[in-house]
Amino acid sequence: EEQLVQSGAEVKKPGESLKISCQGSGYRSPHYWIGWVRQKPGKGLEWMGTIYLADSDTEYSPSFQGHVTISADKYINTAYLQWSSLQASDTAIYYCASGLTAFDIWAQGTMVTVS
Amino acid sequence: QLVLTQSPSASASLGASVRITCTLSSEHNTYAIAWHQQQPEKGPRFLMNINSDGSHNKGDGIPDRFSGSTSGAERYLTISSLQSEDEADYYCQTWVTGTGIRVFGGGTKLTVL
Question: Which of A13, A66, A84, A97 sits in a 20 to 30 Å window from B10, CA-based?
């Protein structure tokens, strides 16, 4: 059974860096996309970017390009979302999800608080 | 530009049916979409894919009460025999085939009366 598990909640100060992770298990090969989705309190889902695990081909939403970095390590089936300098406005729940087209597997989410 | 449009809210009575609509930008009216459900204080859950011909594939464990259909650029999620646990936010999502580009609609908040 395919499954994604994210790293735990984080509390950071403005200006600090952060890298959160999303590890897949049960996948037969690294030929799938993992995407990152932001949800601010009381708001909708926002696609941030997607990475193809097999070759790290990455697409970013224009809204997030330059503000975050998405990377992956196919050997441990893990994708990462990274900030070099957090802002209070980055406070949100971040979900990773996978699928060749639709996101049909979702992880539990990582709460990031910047204060 | 690839855009998905949803009404912000919908409501229906317990035991009734409701149809939630997701509209693709006109030049993308042949695209498939997916529906996701997010119950209060929970993460999203994949419900189904819907193709432009109306065929759909549901996720594991999704009840038969949930179905999908299509008309032109509109993609529908119909929930019949509404239950209290169906009260949730529903998001449609689409993609550009062969790329990592994904798009979400703004979400529809369903209230079960």
Answer: A97
φ, ψ dihedrals at A52, nearest 5°: -90, 115
pLDDT values of chain A reduced to their tens digit, one per residue, 115 residues: 999 999 999 999 999 999 999 999 988 888 899 999 999 999 999 999 999 999 999 999 999 999 999 999 999 999 999 999 999 999 999 999 999 899 999 999 999 999 9
Do the chains contact at A52 and B95, CB–CB below 8 Å?
Answer: no
Which of B33, B13, B15, B14 minimizes the C-alpha distance to B23? Answer: B33
Identify the residue among B22, B62, B96, B102 best suited for mutation to test binding to A, counting A beta carbons within 10 A and taking the highest: B102
Q: CA A105 to CA A98: how far, in whole Å?
A: 5
Residue B110 has pLDDT above 90, yes or no: yes
Distance from A86 to chain B by nearest Cα, in Å?
A: 23
B32 vs A contacts (CB less than 8 Å): 101-102
Question: Under an 8 A CB cutoff, do A106 and B89 touch?
Answer: no
Distances in Å between the alpha carbon of A58 and those of A52, A96, B78, B84, B95? 6, 14, 34, 40, 14
Count of alpha carbons within 13 angstroms of residue B100, beta-carbon side: 26
